[in-house]
Specification:
elongated; 3 domains; mainly alpha
Length: 196
């Protein structure tokens, strides 16, 4: 049963301690509502509509149809006109297309190993393939390029230049002395490169 607040004339549930509209103490301000029959039905329907409107305002409306039949409805799918684009889809790096809806536009190494199809390289793959010389392919991420540059600076210019300058910095295999120097003096940069 709904009660009516004597201060603001808003409807108040019988178990509410205060009026939800004006905050007046319920014991002092409520009286039985004079709504009857049809008016009660209209008030109940309005309250249900208010709940639905509140839920939609908080969580959004229901998703739309799945136009490309990829299993993800409009609102979840970032391109509902292409069945190869959906959340969690394989996203080859370097193609500039965001197939997995993560907002990276195909710039992450993601799936496909070194550079997601060979269009770009990670810092770690660049070191494995060419030592610390500039890779022939672009880096997959700016983090990978920054990690590579930091490692090259430590190994070839700063801490290990004397031990590594004539080998790994020119594309040759690292000598034992160079490897030991890198592990001792550039281990942080080496680990950063492995992560990128």
């Amino acid at each position: 049963m709904l009660l009516t607040c004597t201060h603001c004339e808003g409807f108040v549930p019988t178990n509410a301690p205060t009026c939800p509209h004006c905050g007046a103490e319920s014991l002092d301000v409520k009286a039985n509502s004079k709504l009857g029959g049809l008016a009660k039905a209209v008030a109940s329907a309005a309250a249900g509509g208010l709940v639905a409107a509140t839920l939609m305002a908080c969580y959004g409306g229901p998703p739309g149809p799945d136009l490309d039949n990829d299993g993800y409805e409009a609102g979840w799918d970032c391109n509902d006109n292409d069945a190869t684009i959906y959340p969690g889809a394989p996203d080859p790096a370097g193609d500039g297309i965001d197939q997995n809806c993560d907002g990276n536009g195909g710039s992450d190494a993601g799936t496909g190993g070194s550079g997601g199809g060979g269009n770009c390289v990670t810092c770690n793959d660049a070191v494995k393939s060419g030592g610390l010389t500039s890779p022939t392919l672009p880096f997959c991420t700016t983090h990978g390029a920054e990690a590579f540059d930091t490692l090259v600076l430590c190994v070839c210019t700063a801490s290990c230049a004397e031990d590594c300058g004539d080998n790994i910095c020119k594309g040759a295999t690292a000598t034992t002395g160079c490897s030991a120097c890198v592990q001792t003096n550039c281990s942080t940069q080496n680990l950063d490169c492995e992560a990128n």
